[in-house]
Structure formats: structure tokens, C-alpha cells
Amino acid sequence: MLSHLLIKNYALIDQLELTPDRELNIITGETGAGKSIMLGAIGLLLGNRADTRVLFNPEQKCVIEGVFGVSGYLIEQIFDEEELDFSDTCIVRREISVSGKSRAFVNDTPVNLETLRRVTSQLMDIHSQHDSVLLGSNEYQLEIVDTYAQDDNLLRQYRVDYQAYRSKKTIYDQLQAEASAMRKEFDYNNFLFEELAKAQLLPDEQESLEQELNILENAEEIKERLQLAYEYLDNTEQSVIDFLKGTVSNLAYISKLSDQYEQLLQRAQSSLIELRDLADEISSEQDNVDIDDSRAETIRERLNLIYQLQTKHQVKDVAALIALRDELERKVGKVLNLDDTLAEAKAQADAAREQLQLSGQTLSNARQVVLQPIENEIGGLLKELGMPNASLNVRSEVSKPTPTGIDTISFLFSANKGVKPQQLKNVASGGEFSRLMMAIKYILASKRSLPTIVFDEIDTGVSGEIAIKMGNMMRDMAHSHQIIAITHLHQIAGQGTAHYFVYKDHSASKTVSRIKKLTFDERVNEIAQMIGGNNPSASAVKNAREILKQRATATVK
Questions:
Q1: Residue 61: Cβ-neighbour burial (10 angstroms; 0-12, 13-18, 19+)
Q2: 540 phi, psi to nearest 5 deg
Q3: Which of 110, 290, 312, 552 is a good FRET partner for 274, with 20 to 30 A between their CA atoms?
Q4: Is 96 helix (H, G, I), strand (E, B) or coil?
């Protein structure tokens, strides 16, 4: 339950603190005093979005903090799944900075809005007038059935199976779409692949072939110049080597006369050895140069093929052609194996659909079981709430699988005898919606271990004896749930175990909303004003006092 609420710098609220009673808390006040503002602040704790427009003082951050007692509510699993510290006291805080940036914390651990919503949805439920609009939607009606059926585990398993099926079906559908396109391209891709495969391309062959062809095309000139180079170095008449031999001979002679010439001799001998080796290599290279027109033509044909392929595929080198060949091979192979791949994907999608149908039917069966009890319980409560001829029919139709199951739930309602039940949105008035919603909240309260329930003017459109019965129902619910009820009706206000009054304070330069807990005498006066206006008569005061005494007596019993 909510044990403490702090609101700072929000809308018309400078700072507000509330310590609710553990049972039925009544909140009253004039229209515009700030009751809805309080709910807006609580909504931030539940994960609603906000911006800087909520700041009372635009130069300070807004802080909303709720302290909840969660002992005995079996929600530890959610904390474990979200990796949050769990204790019997849960502190939820929301901050909005002056820049509009929002931060949320659960037990001082930063969380995103999704996690915040998941945690706080187990701590508090707010009924607002918007819920009366939601009640007309089939999706909300399905949520009511699921809450009553307590089928959370079945619904969770169904959603897992639904996502698995959607994933497998998407893969299969994509493969089918790709298969059609790939089959259209197969002949062309296969032709290109076979052409490249037939070429038997090697990574570095283009460079080596171009070099070899250049030599063959200039073979005569290369051979002549190698011969000249050789003759300069070593021939029978006059050569560099012969001159160098003379140099070695002279240096050898003078080295015998002095050691200082030894190094020159060694260098000359090394040069002679190197030149002889160079001459031999030049001679060998000359012998290796062949004038082979046939080989040159073969190389030209090979290079022309490579050049044509590069131009055709708009690439610059053989490596790119090889990469293209490998990619085409993959595409061609994929088409050749397409039937097997499609068959496997279809088998997986069919298996996932069968599992989805199984879990969907199991979930549907759990829902079907509770439809009649829902009709009976709500019908009985509507009679107590002054609608003896009202009837509610809950219909279920099997539909194609959706994220919420294979059922479409429809609440058909009639408030009058002899009138055929129709869709809620077409037949219910404001007061009828309020009573129907009260009945629904009442039967669902026993199905959920929810600490706190907030009713925002659920009594709209009702009065008199019906309001008294709604107040009794709230009081009954408050035995197992903490109830916070915003109301304009004295019949409901008198049932509270605690009564808070919201008002506007104009004493400062800027109007602020404040809240205070009323004493018994203050409650008498407030309820008397709700009965008879701003200046209640003595009988209205007496009536108010009597209402509170009756509540006290009922509580003792």
C-alpha cells in the first residue's frame, strides 16, 4: 500500500505530502482545487510521460516520490527479473529536470519507463473517467476477463509462442519473396558464374602475364642489350673485368710492400668477383630470353579475356572478379538448395503455428470458464446498485491469432427490461457506466493482490441510495486493499476511514494547491457543505454527523 506520497514543484503544487490510511481514504475539494493535479503527479510514478510544463517553479526540478509497503504481495519475481533490490518497503521516485529530462528510480536504482510501469502496475491501479471510455473497447473488456480468470501465466506463454510464430512466419515469407526474385535471376547469375568459373582466374596472374608479355614483345632488343652489357664486362679483347684484373694485380704488388694497401686490394678483389658474377647472370638472362611469338599470342588472348571480364563487370582487378565469382556461386547455390531451405522454413513455421494454436486454445478455455461467473456477479451487483433490469452478456468469438490470444470479447449491455443488449459504447449513460465500472472494479479487486486502488470520481452520474451502496462497496474493498477515492458525494465521503481536503491557498504571490487531513469536526463541516452548500443548515450538519457515526458503528461491528 501507499504509505507516503511526496509531490514537489508540480503544476500548482509547491510541496505536498500525504500519508494515507491503510483502508478507505476520501479526497474532496472544490472543482479546480488540485485533485486532478494530484492524480497527474501519481500518474508520473506509474510511468506517464511529462515535460517542463509541469514545473511549478521552472528553475527547480520536480520530484514525485511514493513509498509503498509491499510485504505479502508476491511481487519479488518482477524485481528479480528487472535486477532490482527487493525489500518490504519499495520507494519509487520520478524527477523532471528544468530541461525537461526525466529520470525514474526504484529503490534508488535508475530504471527506464518500461521497467517503472511494470513495477508500479503491481503497486497501484488508478480508475479515471478515461476508463469509462476504455470500457467500451473490446481490448479493455478482454483485459477484464483475463484479470478475473487470473490467467497471467497462460497469457505470458501464449505471447512467447506468438512471437516465436511471427518470427518463423516472417523468415518463411521473406524466403518465399526472395525465392521468386532469385529464380528470375538464376539463369543470368548462373551464366555469369560459369563464365567466371571457366576463366579459372588466379589472384596475381594479371601482373605476371603483363610482365611476361612485355618481355616477349621486346625480346630482340632485350637480347641485344644484354649481349652488349655482357661484352662491356667480359670479352676476349677488352673489357671492364680485364681492366679490373690489372687493378688487382697492381694492388697486390704494392700490398706486399705495405699493409696499408691491403684494404684497397680486398675491395678490388671483391669488385672483381661481383663483376664476374654479374657477367654470368647477364649471360644466363640472355640465354633465357626467347623470341616466342606463339607464347606471346597465348598471353595476349589470356589478358584480353581478363580485360573483357573487368570491363563487363566494371571492376579494376582480378581479385574483384574472383570475389564476384564467389558471390555468384553463393547465389546460384542458394537457388539450387532453395526447395530444401523453403521446406525447412515452412516446417518450422507450421510447428510454431501448431504450438501457438495449442497455447491459444488453452488460454481461450481458461477465459471461457469465467464468462458466466462474470455475468452473474456483475448482474447481481448491478441489481444492488439500483439497476434491477440490467443485463450483461459476455460474448466470445474465436478469431485469428493476435498478440492477446485467439478470442474477441464483447460486453453486451442493457439497462432496461425488454431492450436487447448491445455494445456498451452504444447504450450506457454516464451514471450507468459508473455503476458498471464500480461493479467490475469490485469483482476484480478480489482477483488481484494489488496494494492500492485509486478511484477518480467513479461516482459520476449517481446519487442517493445508489451512492450509499457504492460507498459500502468501497468500504468493503478497503478491508483487503488500500482505497483512495476522489468524490463529490457526501454518501461516499462519509464512508472513509480518513478524509483529506484539497484547497487553493492564495496567501502568497502565487496560488498553490494544498491538502490537509480533516479532524472529525472538520469532516462533519465538509460533508455538511457537500449536502447543503457553503452555508449548511443545522439539519445538514446533523445529517453529516449522523453519517459519520453510522460509519464508525459499522466499522466497530
A1: middle
A2: -65, -40
A3: 290
A4: strand
As beta bridge partners, residue 413 has 392, 422
Local structure of residue 54 (DSSP, 8 states): G
**Cα–Cα distance for residue pair 504/515, rounded to 1 Å:** 9
Query: DSSP string covering 344-382, please?
Result: HHHHHHHHHHHHHHHHHHHHHHHHHHHHHHHHHHHHHHH
The H or E element spanning position 539 is helix 538-556
What is the predicted pLDDT for the residue at 131? 66
Q: Residues 203, 322: contact at Cβ < 8 Å?
A: yes
Q: Quick one: cell of 285? A: 638472362
Conformation bin of residue 487: beta by default, left when phi > 0, alpha when psi is -120 to 50: beta
Buried b (16+ CB within 10 A) or exposed e, 482-492: bbbbbbbbbbb
Parts of the chain with a pLDDT under 50 = none
Alpha-carbon distances of 405 from 354, 387, 394, rounded to whole Å: 14, 33, 17
Residues with Cβ < 8 Å from 214, sequence gap 6 or more? none
Cell of 457: 470520481
Q: What is the pLDDT of residue 286?
A: 86
Work out the angle at residue 324's Cα, subtended by the Cα atoms of residues 323 and 329, and round it to the nearest 5 degrees.
100
User: Residue type at 193?
Assistant: F
CA atoms of 102 and 189, how far apart (whole Å): 55
Helix, strand, coil share (%) of the chain residues, nearest 5: 60, 20, 25
For residues 110 and 95, what is the distance between their CA atoms, to the nearest angstrom? 11
Tell me, letter by letter, the H, E, C secondary structure of 286-352.
Answer: HHHCCCCHHHHHHHHHHHHHHHHHHHHHCCCCHHHHHHHHHHHHHHHHHHHCHHHHHHHHHHHHHHH
- Give the predicted TM-score (pTM) of the model: 0.65
Three-state DSSP string of 170-233: HHHHHHHHHHHHHHHHHHHHHHHHHHHHHHCCCCCHHHHHHHHHHHHHCHHHHHHHHHHHHHHH
pLDDT given for residue 70 in this prediction: 84
For residue 555, the model assigns a pLDDT of 59
The span from the CA of 115 to the CA of 108, in Å, is 14
